[in-house]
Amino acid sequence: MAKIIGGITTSHIPAIGIAMERGLENSDYWRDFFAGYPPLREWLNEQQPDIAIVFYNDHGLEMFLDKKPTFAIGCAPRYENADEGWGIATIPPVTGETELSWHIVNELVENDFDPTVCQDIKVDHGLTVPLSLMYPGHQYQHLKVIPVCINCERHPMPKPSRCFALGQAIGRAVASFAGEQKVVVFGTGGLSHQLDGERAGFINADFDNDCMDKLVSDPQALTQYSNDDLIEIAGAQGVELNMWIAMRGCLLGKVTEAQRNYVAPISNTGAGMQLLLND
């Protein structure tokens, strides 16, 4: 059967991509943030996963306010990145995966989830920045990617407990897939941040570190929050924690933490990173 070997959590701040393009990783502002990623890259190079399932949120590139699925899964052989309005540089397309992705879709529907199935979507910085962080120089095309998009922008949004259950269902689907594929799961975004309004710049570092602790030892505790709780405690965009919670739901084995880094503020965000091993 296919096996999920681990999970990775990471910020997907668009400024990260710009910093990498401009070679600013060792500047005073960015040094502590980027220092956390070499061990992750070494682990990925050692393990050589075949497939990555990436939980991300679309920031208006493909899924705007007029059409906003709660959960969407890509089943395409290829995903293009596109300009989100900032004049971003063109980067190589992301390689898709079709067999496992369709298996996951079928298993989800059989288990009372109803995801939107996407066979032609562009992916934004929520997905491409994490891949670029793990594979500098955009050397990610060997990795087959299954995008799983969660609505974190427009109310009503799925609550943490539902996102965790989605991850559990995907974890079971992977375990039931015939083959020897090694799978890694990414939870992207967050942690605490608010980019607009009266609380713009709000960060709750204590909450962020507590969430990273609970992702290892007690993920069920995080499912007790409502989205209103997350907005109050972690800022308007703190609901991106739901992608981390979904990732953690996929890890059905014994989970141990191998790496962690946390830096705040980075682009008005509490930027966390973890590597969780799934035994």
TrEMBL record:
Q: Tell me where in this chain the Extradiol ring-cleavage dioxygenase class III enzyme subunit B domain is found.
A: 8-265
Q: Which InterPro entries match?
A: Xdiol_dOase_suB
In Swiss-Prot or TrEMBL terms, this protein is called Extradiol ring-cleavage dioxygenase class III enzyme subunit B domain-containing protein
Taxonomic placement: Bacteria, Pseudomonadati, Pseudomonadota, Gammaproteobacteria, Aeromonadales
